[in-house]
Amino acid sequence: MHILVLSSDYALYTDELLNVNPSLQLTADDKALNVVDAARECPIWFGDPHLVVELLRLGIKPRWIQSTWAGVSPLMAEDLPNDYILTRAVGVFGQLMAEYLLTYILAHERQLMERIDHQKQRKWCNLQPGTLKGRQILIVGAGEIGCCVAQMLLPFGIDLIGIVNTTRSINPFRLCGTLDDLPGFLENADYVINLLPDTSQTQNIWNATLFDRMKPTAIFINAGRGNAVVDADLIATLEQKRLAGAIIDVCREEPLLVDHPFWHTKGLILTNHSAAPSLARPIAELFCNNLNRFCNHLSMLGKVDFNRCY
Q1: Using H for helix, E for strand and C for coil, what is the string for 15-29?
Q2: Is the pTM of this model over 0.85?
Q3: I want to staple 98 with a disulfide (CB 3.0 to 4.6 A). Which of 28, 125, 149, 185 is the partner?
Q4: Among candidates 110, 144, 85, which has minimal Cα distance to 276?
Q5: How far are the Cα atoms of 21, 45, 89 from residue 1, in angstroms, in the given order?
Q6: 45-64 burial, b for 16+ CB within 10 Å, e for fewer?
Q7: Strand 268-270 vs strand 191-194: parallel, antiparallel, or unpaired?
Q8: pLDDT category, 223, cuts 50, 70, 90?
Q9: How far is CA 146 from the centre of its chain?
């Protein structure tokens, strides 16, 4: 079966796809206009959403698209078709996200930045480090990635709280609620981690009203979507010291403009969309698994509900 690979990393993906399944017939590129004819012939596309969308806007449509990203917001635009199968990358980002979050949470507890500053000044640092034991972490968006993160945080003795789309019990969270419960849940959280997908309900959700509900000692981490945060409200909250700090991995516009105030906001650390990169091998393995499911009319992993946008 002929498969179109359209990705900024098409050479890497092509190598890994053929390593997993040498029988695949692939046409690959990083520019949509170079593969228009192949796109018309290929019933299956594998690619980056921001590139694949260019082909869809030309009126070309496959039977199935496998996204290389966990998020698929470029493909949710109202002017695009939704009568094809779309699967997003699942089961590949959980550990990466957990490692990222642990890096910055532990750096905060152990006052890593302060100790580096003391070292530069040749000053002995007598700050008393904290511990994760007993800390409350609120994961806003306790889906597949959020649950994997929670499982990896559990051994540290953390009180885990989750926000999900419908109220239900989920291991290993002590308590789960919906977005309606979010304002109340924020009041006791030591760390608030945003992992929400990009939907109309989640855009601009992190505003002054929610930041005001958080403890002044809390840390806010956004590793979900950049448009979930009202930038000016977060900056004002940090400048007024109503939050202890913020870790921002995703921004409304990337790369971040050189004159954006995030660059010099005290207490804010930018991590340049590095939390959970798309690693070629596991995504190639996911695709080949889904290809088998597609060919055998089985339930596919990461199938997107166009009505929910994820």
Answers
A1: HHHHHHCCCCEEEEE
A2: yes
A3: 149
A4: 144
A5: 12, 11, 21
A6: bbbbbebbbbbbeeebbbeb
A7: unpaired
A8: very high
A9: 10
